[in-house]
Design goal:
291 residues; alpha/beta; Rossmann fold; 4-stranded parallel β-sheet; globular
């Protein structure tokens, strides 16, 4: 039971206890593929419910295109704002919003803004960090993935983990993790992006210089959805094969990995225990500590 930051009571206990009604809102980009949703999004939601029994766990999707497509199939998903308004209407006053973004990019920025917009409806609303936020996050993720793909990255066999990429400076996290694999003793594991940097071209050049002969393409994404099946298992695989490599595509999202799921749960726990301070607060604290 987590009570360091605030006291939470279940709906049943609320009538007898003066405590906050707390919820965790899991926010996913979403996917229309039922198979990957079951082993990533749904699986993590289940683990979060098990890890935080005093919290009601709700869910939201950020992709309106995916929400609309699922609605046509009779599957209803809500946006973060819609889900937060529902929680407020149901009497929840304390909410942890945890996204499953990989980096602190545009999706996370928008999520923070939406949470800020909803502050008047709650006593306390906090946004957990994405998978890769700190150096420690990168090191843990590299350790997990290096352990999983060691056998596929020996000799002339290499692994290329392909992320989405973003147009903001947060994209640099992909290069940082790529460097961490090499610095950690895994020079045959690389990180690339579909829409950012490292690019396909820079990764291809790296593979050629390394003398690689076989390449395993792995989505560096939470779910193995459209990008994994069309860009990675499609275009990237075909282009690398034309370049002379023997290529296999592993259609498996990061969200299927239980150790990666645990990192998201750790971020939720951190958000419960510690409220993030903005830049002004951090700078003021630094000045006070060094006077």
């Amino acid at each position: 039971m987590f009570m360091l930051a605030f006291m939470c009571a279940s709906a049943e206990k609320q009538a007898h206890e003066k405590a906050s009604r707390c919820a965790i809102l899991m926010v996913h980009f979403g996917t229309t593929f039922d198979d990957t949703r079951a082993v990533t999004i749904d699986a993590l939601n289940v683990r979060v419910r098990e890890a935080f029994p005093d919290f009601t766990v709700a869910e939201a999707y950020t992709s309106r295109i995916i929400i609309d497509r699922l609605k046509k199939r009779g599957i209803e998903k809500h946006t973060p704002v819609e889900a937060l308004l529902r929680l407020a209407a149901d009497g929840y006053d304390t909410v942890i919003v945890q996204g499953t973004s990989i980096i602190d990019g545009i999706e996370t920025e928008v999520l923070r803004r939406e949470a800020d917009m909803m502050k008047p409806f709650f006593k306390d609303i906090r946004v957990g960090r994405p998978l890769l936020y700190s150096v420690e996050d990168g090191e843990k993720t590299v350790g997990i993935l290096a352990s999983k793909y060691t056998a596929a990255s020996e000799g002339k066999s290499h692994v290329v983990m392909v992320g989405h990429g973003t147009s903001t400076s947060a994209n640099a996290m992909y290069s940082q993790v790529d460097y961490m694999f090499g610095a950690g003793g895994y020079p045959n594991i690389h990180v690339a992006t579909v829409e950012g940097y490292p690019t396909y071209e820079t990764t291809l050049a790296k593979l050629k210089v390394s003398g690689a002969r076989e390449v395993a393409l792995v989505p560096f994404m939470f779910v193995a959805g459209d990008h994994a099946r069309n860009d990675i298992a499609g275009e990237w695989k075909e282009n690398l094969e034309k370049a002379g490599f023997k290529v296999t595509a592993v259609i498996e999202g990061l969200g299927q990995n239980k150790d990666i799921q645990s990192l998201y749960i750790d971020h939720i726990r951190n958000a419960i225990d510690t409220k993030d301070r903005d830049a002004i607060e951090l700078k003021s604290a630094y000045v006070k500590e060094n006077i």
